[in-house]
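ingest -> fold -> write
write: protein_1
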Amino acid sequence: MPISSITNGLSSATARSRINEAITAVNGLGDAASKNVGTTAGSVAAGDDSRLSDARTPTSHTHDDRYYTESEVNALLTGKADASHSHAAYQITTPRIYHVATNGNDTTGDGSPAKPFATGNAALAAGIAGATGTVGFAISFGAGAFSITFDAANYNGGATPNCGNLRRVVGAGIELTTLDIEADGASVTGEGNTATSGYAIQLEVLDLALNYSSNGGTGGDGANGGHGGSVVLRGSNYHVLSGEAKGRNDGATPGDGGFVSHVGGITDAVDVSSATSNGTIRLYQSDLRNVSLTGTISIEVGGCICASSIPGTDKGGNIIV
């Protein structure tokens, strides 16, 4: 007899309600109500079945962008700035400035004013790594004597940006900071191998004394010597103690002298000589003190000429005062 017939015959409302609840529960179980309890296929699990509490290692899988695990979220957030954060002035200055000081440290320093590097080359490497687009970077030197080196590895070693992105060097004062820049071309060996020209130096220079060289490299047997490089300096309150962009006088044909241009500042000595073809020196709005100039010379002096003599027509010079 159907259960519904039994419920219709019951006069107790409470009894009928309980029977209806049982019917609902049985119908909700589907065919599970007719299966045996067990651990094999076709059986149902009991409440204390160990399989219900056994830890299971999930199989390897990935998520789309709607579902991420905690570790995946953390990996995506690594390196991202907090919503609320600030920057030091040196980090947002255009170009960004890396600081160097005699009490700095190349290992623990980060180029900030509080944690400067100890050497110019460390700042150069950090600037190359951090430069983006055409913004470039600058290096600020404290009081003392420092140096930086341009070479094949950091200048044109296939990486962009390179140290051509160094746009400005700044010192603590013309009497306090001395900087040596070496940008000589790479020398080569082997018959017929031509040397590299001096690497270009194009900088804004402020508040320091400077020595630089951008000479051509030595060529292999029977090959050409390297040409002098191109040096273009501009700025104020800087003093070129000595500058060289000489062609290498060896090989089958010596390299040509380079091109030098100083705008502003003080110039003591520049040499762009070559055994075959001297380079060109152009000085604009510069003070000349005890000057020694070797090469083809074009000078437009806007400041003081404090020299015993300036080479003129014997060097192909052109002096405009």
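write: protein_2
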Amino acid sequence: MKSVDAALIAAVCIAAAPPTFAQTTAAEPDAAHRPQALISYAPGKVDGRSPFRIAININDDADRFYPHTALLAQQSGESHIRCDWNASGIVTACQVINETPVNAGFGAAAVALAMAMGHVDPIRPDVTMVAGAGLDFTVAWKTAPSPCAYADAIMKSDSLECAGFANIRTLGEYYPARAADSEVEGESTLDCAVADEAGHVQCAIVDEKPPGYMFGASALKTTIRYLRVKARQAGQPITGTHFPFSMTYRLR
């Protein structure tokens, strides 16, 4: 089965936890308005062979390793590093082989990520786990717009703006299981209304395509649980304000 991303209908990509090893600024955006980190890696080889592989749990906690300045600038990069490990598979040391672009922090970030969240394992059950050195692998660093950038692009409201929404991984978790298993993509449209001055919303399904795969129900659950709105103009009442909200679901 393909992996899934739940992407909104706006033609933009889909929060990252704040990177903690880099200096922050006074104008630090919150998670809903911060560009999102998209981190992936290729397991790599030792001496041209692959008796072992490194596994890194790429989750919201891993996002904090994205170089802070690069994340805010929505700068992508790639880093190639080489690591050693002990007989328990714990990564003990890493060095940067190269990074692109240079001096943007992607090499050091990959080392920190591997040391904190990496684990080396044999690729087959018959391979004995031993300490080793020289495991090369590559980390790719990409960004996506903030969760609220998605929501604002969809709402297109003169009176409302996003105060909070789900990040890309959370949206992926809400991809309907039957649709994912069948490798079916879809979309849904909701009619939403602001439920209270705190910005909670209530929504109803207007349409879903194709029918029968629960895209409407998924969008309904995601939106009611995670979307929060606020008035564009301070002090303006928002309770009862209606707006459309659409989501598309794409397989990666």
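write: annotation protein_2
The domain at 36-144 is CATH 3.30.2420.10 (TolA/TonB C-terminal domain).
Residues 106-117 form the longest helix (12 residues).
pipeline exit 0
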